[in-house]
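Quick one from the shared queue. A colleague (R.T.) flagged Transcriptional regulator, IclR family as missing a structural entry in our internal table.

Convert sequence to structure tokens.
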Amino acid sequence: MRKNDAVESAQSARRALRLVLMLAQAGQLRVSEVSNALGVAPSTAHRLLTALEQEGMAARSSFGRRYVVGPQFVAATTAALERDRTLTAAAVDELQALAQRTGETAHLVRRRELVTDFIYAADCDRGLRVGSRAGVQLPAHATAGGKALLALLGRERVDALYEGFDWPVLTARTIRCLSELQRELALVAERGWAVNDGEAEDGIRAVGVAIDHPAEVQAAAVVIAAPASRVSGGDIEYLAHELESTAASIAQAWQDMNPIAFSRG
């Protein structure tokens, strides 16, 4: 594929993703509304809607010339919500115990394409601590959990995922290019855990470990976040070992709650 073709393909994919989110938020949209919102010609908006309709991600409304979310989107969203509920139920006790043992805030996260979703947080008892990020989304390349999960994909899939990516800079330490990210992910894959050294927010250091799920690559990760002043090199290794133990316990609890899903691996 030529570079220009790859860029155009990535741009079309992002427009399609934006359009699905727009449909979910607005309820229903006309072609003209999509055209204006995306800044594209009506013919392009119509092609995008038609492509989504063919994949079941959009559908024509029975009320005039409008489009709504399709059956595949509804099914996928419902399945994702149920999956997150099951995962969280399996992780709550383990994360709370982890926060108590380490004295730092523990998070459960998922990676969705280029974003890390913070699903659940267990706070520690210290006055100076990292607050809950539950419900927050951050760029995957700038988070410990996101990098732990990206490292499972392999070099080629990461290259494709970040093709034409506009790298956001959150702090002076944020990774800013694909080659830098690939070097970091190679290190993560080698040692089994990832570090966010003030890359998403100044003054915060985090360690992340992926949760093993044989049927679902990059399913989820557990993360410990702490004030950077309290976490040195030796502390990072200690937290990584604690996270590895917690991730294994969550994986077992998750399997016990949903053995059919794990049997697909």
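Residues 64 and 131 are 47 Å apart (CA to CA).
The domain at 80-257 is CATH 3.30.450.40 (Beta-Lactamase).
Added to the table.
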